[in-house]
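The methods section describes the discrete structure representation at length, but only in general terms. Since the whole study asks how a given chain folds, the encoding of that fold should be made plain. An entry of this sort, consisting of the sequence and the corresponding backbone structure tokens, reads as follows:

. . .
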Amino acid sequence: MYHTGGARRANIRILPEVSVDRLTRKQLKQDKFAQEVGQTVQFLEQHRRQIIRIGVAALAVVVLVAGWVFYSRYQKSVRQKELAAAMDLMQAPIGPPALYGPSAFPTAEEKEHAIERALQQIVSKHPRSEEALIARYFLGARAASDPARLDEAVRQLNLAAEGKSPYASLAKLALAEVYAVQGKTADAEKLLKSLIDRPTILVSKEQATITLARLLAPSRPEEARKLLEPLRSAPGPVGRAAVEALDAIAAATAGAGT
């Protein structure tokens, strides 16, 4: 999922030393193209030292760019390793290390602290990186599971949603769900509609539509149905999720009528 940009290889051509004396006046008059060549060669000879200086400066720029690309790739690999290590912690078992291995945590609380510490370190060390945005998404999503930390979840997810990474769309989806829990339906609706208009590889238009329908179902069931009906016949998980949401709306409506 991570891509690194490469720099174009610079083609540095060395111009051969050509003397204007080798071109006769007759040849230059007969060939207009040769006249242009002669003028160019004469200019090069007259400004040879200046051109060499410019060439050296250009070469220095190429070297600096190449060095920066190498350094950027190295730094990204470091960040990716740190993020991968944090995600490994999420998969670590809970229980006695003697039974579950050295990566196990004795308690869920210790595991959670280790995960948050690893994610926070990525944010602190590489605040403007894509990996930091991903770390913020995980921090926000984990905070959202605790009703007492919803404000922290909103803060982290808002920061993650500002990026251009595909994870920004996941952050918006999670943020919309937190807003829904907080009763901020209008804010949640706005985010979900933006995801419907601009789906990503991680959040599809259908997923955002179903989430919006579920958000609207309690207060605007007819509008929710209109969103879901076109998805009822969709193949796979999308169709099943749409049918389940429609059934839930029907059950709620029937229950309200009794």
In short: Residues 93 and 101 are 8 Å apart (CA to CA). The chain has twelve helices and no strands. Residues 1-34, 57-71 have pLDDT under 50 and may be disordered.
